[in-house]
Design a protein that fits this description.
Layout (H helix, E strand, L loop, with lengths): L10 E8 L5 E5 L2 E6 L6 E9 L3 E11 L25 H18 L7 E6 L10 E7 L6 H5 L10 E6 L2 E7 L9 H16 L13 E9 L4 E8 L5 H17 L4 E6 L10 E6 L4 E5 L2 E5 L12 H12 L6 E5 L7 H5 L4 E6 L2 H13 L5 E5 L6 H7 L6 E4 L8 H10 L3 E6 L2 H11 L3 E9 L9 E8 L3
Parallel strand pairs: 3-5, 6-21, 11-12, 16-17, 16-19, 17-18, 19-20
Antiparallel strand pairs: 1-2, 1-4, 2-3, 4-5, 7-8, 7-10, 8-9, 10-11, 12-13, 14-15, 20-22, 21-22
């Protein structure tokens, strides 16, 4: 790409649309510019932050002409923290662009247009909706531009408790507010941060594997209004570490006595927020409900993060699937059974399959808890060639539901779906791009009948999609 702006001077851009991963798009001199924190119909002054072979990445310096859809972000960390990249966009516009992203991605990447397009289901509420927040300790606090430019002495550079900076996993932004988290979260963070600093504890360094404090995970049950706090540390190495743990096990527990409190130890080099848990107060798990089904949520188990949307989300899957009481269904990537168990009460048999052994154990416990006996759960690598042999021994399904991770399904599994050839597939996706790719791969055997977008992640560009694919021969 020929560089016509060798001195990297600010450039004026007219924003046309929103593109990949929620970033605004502009064109100038035939070159595509991706502009963070801009909105369609705006004219902005931007600076180039990265030069790619086919496009430029930019940051807004000044909004010269503001869109009527621009709103004041609720969080003071907006623009630095990567958690909520759309807080500046009016919520109805968020919904419009999420829906448009799904449809355009299916059209351009998958070469597919669904027969039925349902209106996106909005979230209520749009703040304080997350039932799980994972915060990290860091030995290198992210310094904001405002802080650096202030000229004031910078203190506490080697300790932070908050969220990682986008594309900089080594840097953590100290968080003093988070409007998408449960309201108790910041109170808990503030207490833990203050005491850690007072005792002089060190944050764990993922590069050198030194330090003590690793993560704070906060989970919340909407159905029962209960909270769980999990502190994850390495083994104590210094006196200050032991003193901090004594405070956490006594004074912190007393202050938050209505909260389930767990201390987990992680001595591995893995940055994943997990560890061997020890209950200090309350319960070992939370209980959440979906359509009258109770779910045990253990400290580190996966569960959809927006409890407010769970009932409409699962209800829509059931409605789109249009299952009959005599049906047998496979639920692939079933997790802890959040889709399997409500469906089990409406059909003859459901089989849940998932790689994670801990999730399968939770799913089995949830089935027992709800006295549901027409469901079988198995732990298996769905992407492996060996799964073909295992699947051949299972009852033939009338329908298959799959809810893969963001990376989508594996080609081995997609080939199996073609071979098994059920009457219908219900594909649940959190990534329009991999949904489009997989639907296109299946298009020789299945056609896309219906699409339903649902907003599980307000203030972000992420969107959940339910797709109904029908067998062309049935």
């Amino acid at each position: 790409m020929k560089n016509k702006n060798k001195n990297n001077l600010p450039i004026e851009l007219s924003i046309e649309s929103i593109a990949f991963e929620g970033v605004a798009l502009a064109r100038k001199d035939g070159v595509v510019h991706f502009v963070r924190r801009a909105i369609p119909e705006e004219i902005v002054l931007a600076k180039v932050t990265k030069k790619r072979k086919r496009y430029l990445e930019c940051e807004v310096m000044e909004v010269l002409k503001s869109s009527p859809n621009r709103v004041l972000p609720k969080c003071k960390h907006f623009g630095v923290c990567g958690g909520c990249s759309w807080q500046h966009l009016d919520y109805p516009e968020q919904l419009k662009w999420k829906e448009r992203t799904v449809l355009e991605t299916l059209k351009h990447l998958g070469k597919i247009t669904p027969e039925i397009i349902n209106n996106i289901i909005p979230s209520e509420p749009v703040y304080n909706y997350r039932n799980k927040m994972e915060f990290s300790f860091g030995p290198s606090r992210w310094l904001t531009t405002k802080e650096i430019d202030s000229g004031e002495k910078i203190v506490q550079k080697d300790f932070a408790l908050g969220l990682h900076i986008p594309e900089r996993f080594d840097k953590v932004l100290d968080i003093s507010e988070c409007p998408i988290a449960p309201e108790i979260s910041i109170k808990i963070l503030d207490r833990i941060r203050a005491q850690a600093l007072m005792f002089g504890c060190k944050a764990y360094n993922t590069a050198t594997h030194e330090g003590f404090l690793r993560n704070v995970v906060i989970r919340n049950s909407l159905s029962y209004q209960e909270t769980m706090c999990i502190l994850i540390t390495d083994n104590p190495k210094e006196t200050c570490d032991e003193d901090f743990l004594k405070w956490f096990e006594t004074e912190f527990v007393e202050e938050f006595k209505d909260t389930s409190i767990i201390h987990a130890v992680n001595t591995s080099f893995s940055p994943v927020a997990i560890g061997i848990p020890k209950l200090l107060n309350g319960k070992t798990h939370l209980i959440e409900e979906i359509l009258g089904i109770k779910y045990k949520i253990s400290p580190f188990s996966f569960f959809q993060t927006n409890s407010y949307q769970l009932n409409p989300f699962v209800s829509k899957i059931i409605r789109i699937a249009e299952l009959e009481t005599s049906n047998t269904v496979w639920d692939l990537y079933c997790g802890t059974g959040s889709i399997s168990l409500p469906i089990a009460r409406k059909i003859n048999k459901i089989i849940g399959l998932e790689l994670s052994e801990s999730s399968i154990e939770d799913a089995k416990e949830n089935a027992k808890l709800n006295e549901i006996d027409n469901v079988d759960f198995f732990s298996f690598d769905l992407h492996s060639k060996e799964f073909w042999s295992f699947a051949s021994e299972l009852p033939k399904p009338d329908a298959i539901i799959l809810d893969p991770p963001r990376s989508g399904s594996h080609e081995n599994l997609l080939k199996l779906l073609k071979s098994v050839s059920p009457a219908k597939l219900v594909y649940v996706s959190c990534n329009p791009a991999t949904l489009a790719r997989d639907c296109q791969f299946l298009s020789d055997n299945f056609y896309l009948k219906e699409i339903q977008a649902i907003d599980m992640f307000p203030q972000t560009y992420h969107v959940e999609t339910i797709a109904l694919l029908l067998n062309k021969e049935k």
